[in-house]
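Q: Okay, next protein. This is ABC transporter permease from Pleomorphomonas carboxyditropha. I've checked the sequence twice, so it should be correct. Can you predict the 3D structure?
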Amino acid sequence: MAGTINPVAFLGRTRRRGRIDITDILSWLWLIGGTIAVLVPVVWAGLSSMKPEAEITRFPPSLLPRTTQQVVVPGYDRPLGLWTVTIDGESREMAMVRRIGIKAQMVDPENPAAPVSVDARTISPVQKLTIATENYSDPLERFNFLTYLKNSVFVTVVATILTLIVNAMAAFALSKYRFRGDKAVFVLIISTLMIPLTVVMVPAYMVIVGVGLVDNLWGVIIPTVASPTGVFLLRQYMLTIPDELIEAARVDAASEFRIFWRIVLPLTAPALAVLAIFSVLWRWNDFLWPLIVLSSRENFTLQIGLNAFQGEFSVQWHYILAMTFLSLLPVTVVFLFLQKYITTGIAGTGMK
């Protein structure tokens, strides 16, 4: 079929035909290393989210979610862990009664007699593959996870829509209108990127207090709508749209808003998709600003809600990993849906 790309031929392409260059080797190492660096933490978090609580902190750590098999031994109130023990050159499976230092007291589960003392360094647990589904079910039942999820979805969706509209209007004005000081305004907007977030956080909070949006989801959304990154990205892309197309629409008596809504925005779809991905990532993962603005549990976003699993003396890592991995799914879906626009949108910002 015409236009079909052979994956093997594509991956095997070199800088020089029939010859491997040093740049080819460096490119492969960079791509493979980058892929591994990105995937390993995600895979580890996903597998660890299915481990029982005791297995997460076990050393040395295991990749797959495994637990020590337990067996009921007559004469003991609770199930005992099963371990592989070598006694007189014979390997046997025995239950551990207790462990003191480097000595472990073991009994035969089928014929429990007096415990046998063995070196704890020579025994190994008998493990089986176990998926701890309660890591996902318990937070959904006992905590307000669905409420936190609903708040995060509301903040992310509304903030992203407003971000696209506000930044697109600013970019349209800066790219298609000529007025005195337009370059200075654009430079002023871009220069705000150099201002640290901590500098504007206190004034922004004072404004939120003044307008009565403290402990309100709109107080989280509104201050984050205007983004200099979004204005820059969309303006650079809109510069590639021919001015003659807009002039022709004006000749046909189209209003400025109609030109913006029906002509410019559809043509800017790749750049809008890129900005949408950035906005979703920013809003979904934001922790500090919602932590400052929100104080009621019913208004908490997902990232603040996950902080509830961290106590003063203990951290419930099994719940944190499970809910964190679950919270990655919406962002992943958005990225997979819009990823085809990323290259086009970013490449198009530098065409003019």
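A: Here is a summary of the prediction. The mean pLDDT is 82. The chain has three domains: 7-47, 66-129, 136-348.
Q: Noted. On to the next one.
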